[in-house]
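Example 4.3 (complexes with small molecules)
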Amino acid sequence: MDERLARMRELDSRYVMQTYKRLPVAFVRGEGTMLWDSSGREYLDLLGGLGVTVLGHSHPAVTQAICDQASRLIHTTNLYYVEPQAELAKLLVENCFDGRCFFANSGAEANEGALKLARKYHHLKGKPRSKVVAALRSFHGRTLTTMSATGQPEKWAPFQPVVPGFAHVPLNDVEALDSAVDSDTAAVILEPILGEGGVYPADGAFLKAARSACDRVGAVLIVDEVQSGMGRSGEFFAFESSGIRPDIVTMAKGLANGVPAAAFIAAGEFGEVLAPGDHGTTFGGGFLACAAGVATVTTILQQGLLGNASRIGFLLMERLKDLMSLDIVTEIRGRGLMLAIELDRPVARDVVLSCLEHGVIVNDVGPSTVRMLPPLILNEEEALHGATVLSDVLAGLKD
Ligand code: PLP
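Answer. The structure with pyridoxal-5'-phosphate bound is encoded below.
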């Protein structure tokens, strides 16, 4: 282990809360799809900072935007107009989802705000509602409310009692969803592709059923695109292929290519629900994040990255499907550049470590699930190299 890494490990173990099971590596530089660690070793990044660096590392347009903005002004607060915030809102609303934006700092915070908006909407209608339907295995964040929305009971266990009112139905079970939504339901919140739950795409029929159920009872449909959005699925938002229109879309991860930024956009009348004093955040919609966001979204839209995510995602998926010939691989799932390999035994962490040794970064999203969320700029050669390394690593696993 090099000295720099040894020092980081020592400081971390002594001074930082041990909430992350870190891998034995520290990256110190990145460019495009490549990362370099503290010993100078090079890696192909098929994880993109957990789906964040959609344009790859140190993208020149984002770096330029951050440097230009930082040299002029970093913070004033939302007491005043913030030019890059207004520009990012225009860009998102005119190109991605029609409505009004609220800017936050994390995916959890965006979902929290969307859920608050749903409650206020019903309050304004004169019949307060607080019940929310979500999917089992879903992930919506780590605040008390978004943790309670999350359909993974093991994540709430030590923090009981959860925020009341959340009901969870199996993903893609239209009947269960339909019967869970009733006249007390304030909102339905769904990921179009479960991310932290193991990369399980929702069927178009399930999303359509959610839309109809919300219409039937007047509930708010919130689509959580924190992980699947910003072009990752090959569409700007993964719900698009289902043909539905949500009432609120939440986003974060890829919005500013690594500068903390999040947003929710509420369509039509939902965009008028939150009034001064109802909701706010000191840092949300700040100059740096929004300048980086404008550069990121503009680049995604102008450089054909949705098409690239679809094309390279398809190619990678085809290559990964060849791994089904190995006994250990039971399923390949996903869409665009959001992919998972399901194994027949809980060795995903061994696969991650072995890939790391071979200079390729992937992630164990579950004990037997290996996940990839590479930058949308991934090229054919890199995708094939990644698939070859995964194939070698999986073939080399001992029984
Ligand atoms: N929603 C989804 C779908 C996510 O994947 C995540 C994070 O992984 C979140 C919400 C929470 O986002 P954050 O970690 O930025 O709070």
